[in-house]
Amino acid sequence: MGHGDRTALVTGGARGIGLEIGRQLADRGLRVLVGARQRAAAEEACRAVGRAALPLALDVTSAKSVTEAVREARELTGGIDVLVNNAGVSLDGELRPPYLDEDILRSTLDTNLTGAWRVAEAVVPGMVEAGYGRIVNVTSSYGSLALMNSGRHPAYRISKTALNALTRMLAAELAGTGVLVNAADPGWTRSGMGGPSAPRGPEEGADTPVWLATLPEGDSTTGGLFVERRPLPW
User: Fold this and answer.
1) Known catalytic residue: 142?
2) What is the pTM of this model?
3) DSSP 44-91
4) In the predicted model, what is the mean pLDDT of residues 61-72?
5) What own/partner pairs with CB < 8 Å and gap ≥ 24 does 68-74 have?
6) Which one of 99, 132, 142, 156 is the catalytic residue?
């Protein structure tokens, strides 16, 4: 089965890196489901992604929204072969430990960790049944324990560290099923989160997630963390 027969779901796909990931996946021949909290935003993004794109109202912080969106996706396309968990927030501002804002921590984890977990739970059974799947969790080097040398952006960093752990656990549980699970750091990229002064454009930021999302059949790359297509220490 070629990429043209595959369907990819990109959460947080209406702007920034998510939009570019969708565009690059469509360029490779995949049908792309653009997930966004507001359907109007998803519809607008689909015009930028191309004719192979379909809009999907998807709020990863709502279990009901995830269930309904995945049901709609299956009705539209028959199934989801690729999941890019790109939806994310960074809410810390200048907060640093030991100071804690519990509301910020809860909101950050609900999107960056639990949201990704919710969507994975909804799509993995279909992937296992089909014997094929690619899951890419968009993370950050800020979540790497080996590289953690400051307390900047604490809730964001902890959420990405936890997302990395989820990546490892999913990869281990799905070994041998044909479903590959990896994490991708897009680098500091110009976007709503990265800001206008970031050195990398969305095209560069999307490259590693798209590479992992389109690993060929027979590839065994799973349970890894990558930046610029190279391994990054956990």
Assistant:
1) no
2) 0.95
3) HHHHHH-TTEEEEE--TT-HHHHHHHHHHHHHHHS---EEEE------
4) 98
5) 69/35, 70/9, 70/119, 70/122, 70/123, 73/7, 73/9, 73/33, 74/126
6) 156
